[in-house]
Design a protein that fits this description.
Strand content: 15-25%
Number of helices: 8
Helix content: 40-55%
CATH topology: Rossmann fold
Strand order of the largest sheet: 3-2-1-4-5-7-6
CATH class: Alpha Beta
Largest sheet: 7 strands, mixed
Shape: globular
Distance between the termini: 43 Å
Bound molecules: S-adenosyl-L-homocysteine, 3,4-dihydroxybenzoic acid, magnesium ion
CATH superfamily: Vaccinia Virus protein VP39
Number of domains: 1
Amino acid sequence: MSQEQWTLVDDYISDHVSTSDPILEHALSSTQAAEIPSINVSPTQGKYLHLLAKISGAKKILEIGTLGGYSTIWLARALPADGSLITLEFSPEHADVAQSNINNAGLSHLVEIKVGAALDTLPKLVENGSGPFDFIFIDADKVNNANYLSWALKLSHVGTVIICDNVIRGGHLVDEANVSPDLIGTREFFDAVAAEKRLSATALQTVGVKGYDGFAIALVIAD
Ligand code: SAH
Ligand code: DHB
Ligand code: MG
């Protein structure tokens, strides 16, 4: 099995269940046109996140790592009319593209982008009483994954779903010789999950158009 096969199967899935439309396509093409890297979740993964958020009945969503707003649109579309989503983005350029994509998707009344390093904006969310959130998607600089988990817990209630993207990285997660800061951050994330009695967690390895990677999912089960 190969990348070519994984892509063909993702295409097959997308041909059978709706994973795209002109608004989502525009979010991707405008991100590319702005020369921002295409490190968004794939269409099948975006739909998956959307369904998870809907299944959980989330009314308040927090996203860490906006990029061009592609996953933001998928998640915000899972919200009820009185829901809200806060998304944190370091880069003002990324945030500009994302804001225009969120406007184009008719979601600007539900979504607020907070520009800055997430380790600066997360404490403000706690101070301002912006939480708790029902669903939290961690997808920014992987080196801080354990720190983001810690802030996510401060912004959670029993029942909050916490998802972390890119936790498998082609299997390099378990390649101990690979000590890239991103992988170390994700290993610290798993160590923190393992030590955390408030969480029930697992991770799913995924293949598809974006290669071999995976999501961690954790449910807050105790205060
Ligand atoms: N969730 C997006 C992809 C996010 S890519 C999607 O799937 O569509 C990761 C994003 O995190 C990038 O836009 C990057 O600029 C941002 N980022 C990197 N470091 C950050 C930090 N310290 N705080 C907040 N955002 C950060
Ligand atoms: C990268 C970041 C992501 O969030 C992703 O989904 C894929 C790649 C990256 O930083 O390379
Ligand atoms: Mg990601």
